[in-house]
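Handout, tutorial session.
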Amino acid sequence: MKITKDLYQSSLALLTDFYQLTMAYAYWKSGKAEQEAVFNLFFRKNPFQGGYTIAAGLDYIIDYCRNFRFDEADLEYLEEMQNSDGSPTFQKEFIEYLRNLDFSCDIEAVEEGTVVFPNIPIVKVKGPLIQCQLLETPLLNIINFQTLIATKASRITEAAKGQSVLEFGLRRAQGIDGALAASRASYIGGCSATSNVMAGKLFDIPVSGTHAHSWIMSFDSELEAFHAYADAFPDKCVFLVDTYDTINGVKNAIEVGKSLREKGKEMVGIRIDSGDLAYYSTIARDMLDEGGFPKAQIVASNDLDEQIITSLKIQDARIDIWGVGTKLVTAYDQPALGAVYKLAAIRKSSGEWEPKVKVSQQSIKINIPGDHDVVRFVKSGKALADMIYLTGNPVEKNNYVIIDPNDPTKRKKININGLEKDNLLKPIFEKGKKVYLRPDIHQIRENAKRNLELFDKAHKRLVNPHIYPVGLEEGLYNLRTDLVLKMKNYDE
């Protein structure tokens, strides 16, 4: 099947906050537009009070950057903008500058499907200050949502413990684009299929679905509806049994299943979409087994999420496949990831890089300065810790100390002898040219699965997960501390 790339082929340069354009104009006016800078995109807390996060959205970023430009309609719109006194908001020379703007940044990023944690740069952008600034809003828009949904999907599939999870959220998603991005991210996070046919076409995701209650209600009886559906799809019969009475619906499904068997076909299963799922799935399983259909699967839906699935499993519900919609694609219990995009360094006229830090009364909001990278230490197939370090200081020493950026009393000593090192940030663009070989979505999904296997169950549990150690290399931590003290005028 042909996999569609470049989902966004037209200009999306105006998909940004207005203040990005006002800053861009001010950079240009002050002669700083071409000054080199480094920005990092990261988040401060794992979503859903969880212990990990699944990175997603890089493929969209690649499309966005490859097609980044201001087309004539964009420029005309900007040229017509006026200040309160009627004067043009932007000078014609600036409009001409934007007309000739060619994307030329270096971008490094964590690959999609990678397990990531707070403060780790998911995307690092280096290049002309004006370009780095203009990328802030779209990159955050893409990463924030898809990473959030991929993480939610991962938590749900972890709760399902190896059973299939189907994403059913199109009708409840946040608009057309939200639905497509959610379907894609859900598949990366571990869902087996989607109900969203357009997502299936665009992203090569398996699609799944049977029929709704309206199908049953359009016939004089449930039994007649089941027979008609079996005639239409004799190889894919999953009957929705709760339109009128669940137990009677299972009886009708069994009757039609026997008719199918006489024709050499086999009923796939039933779906229960309401009521006490633990109770009705147990009754249905017994009825199907006694009726001669031990292999028929029971699909459950009805506002499911990881907590409800866990509860149903504790109750020994006899459910084989989970259909999850609203609470997955809307990230129902946490509507935003909260990732941010911060300036970390700027190149001075001397050619040296000057680290930059944002100071806050809240330690969690103090960014990590400098051009930095992150390495994951792995021993015997298990991740031990992640270290954030300055790019100019390669990881070559035998012993390191990493320090929690928010709590200096939390420290971990690491002897790297015998450890595997995985540099998480991979080159994506160099001087505006793509250098990354894009994996397909199935490879990304497998990457997420392999990544999760690196981590102990304690990091993945839904409630009070064990905190995975992520810290600053000691020299970077000291640099950050010194810069904060300097900005607060504490230096003597």
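The second record follows below. Compare its token runs with those of the first.
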Amino acid sequence: MSHAVAHPPVTGASPNLGLLLLKARTFIALILVFAFFAVAAPNFLSAANMVIMSKHVALNAFLAIGMTFVIISGGIDLSVGSIVGLCGMVAGWLVLYGIDFGLGWSIQFNTFEICVLVCLVGIAVGVVNAILITRLNVAPFIATLGTLYICRGAAMLASDGRTFPNLGGNPEYGSDTFRLIGAGSFLGLPISIWMLIAVAALAAYISRRTPLGRYIYAVGGNERGAALSGVKVNRIKLFVYMFSGFCAALVGLIVSSQLVASHPATGETFELNAIAAAVLGGTSMSGGRGRIGGTIVGAFVIGVLSDGLVMMGVSAFWQTVIKGLVIVAAVVVDQAQQKLQARVALQAQAALGK
């Protein structure tokens, strides 16, 4: 009959256009922010500033990638900033002193070994977070808030609150290349950017191409349903918190290398930037939804915003306020997207039923 092939109502065009704009909101925000600071901030488009900004974006992107996995699984990790500080102090200690067993006997490490040990520290904190959440049934917010304080305190205790300076390393032990992690470049790009590309590619592959990635989404979307279907929920949560700790450890290494010094307060509020980048990139705080690519774009938005505000001379206090507003706005827009998606789905079902 003729009415069976009638076209869907025209009213669906507007919601579909709105949904498309909401899905592309991160790219739109990046274009707008970049264009604004290109005009308003002097020397924003200079080559030197682009290099500096790319390094800042890389630091936030590392943390945001790990945070994305955690949030998709239905959790949160507030400890990443303090893990950065702790791992930076561990790196500084190993570069300067190695491991001293007393009686004149110590072990010194080359740069690669230092990197491995520091990453293991970050992963170990992730394991602690996962055990608190999965075995002791502590809420992720409380568990990671506790480890935030523990790691920050441990970083302070490592040097009594002082800085480990002059991390140039020792050629005799092969640690003199430590500074290249943050200051070196390859084919015109900083090494930290190459590290980010590798981690982002790995994370994207895991999330889109492996059973592990599908299980992470399943746990965040419906944890009980995932468990009933045979997914090892506790193992999935263990992985995401370990991966988040690993990403934070990389940032600790990079920051210490860039500054050629380690300070226990390094990484304060870094977790806020990571959450902002993930949420702005489309990761749902309710879990089960998010993309690594969107998170990378979100990290660029936060990085451009931060550097642009600094170049315009905006107070650090106002920068914090603006970042908070960005997080709130991102969550509000995410909720609007979910409601519009549900509306479009209902309209599609109604059209098919006619």
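Points raised in discussion: The chain has one domain: 45-312.
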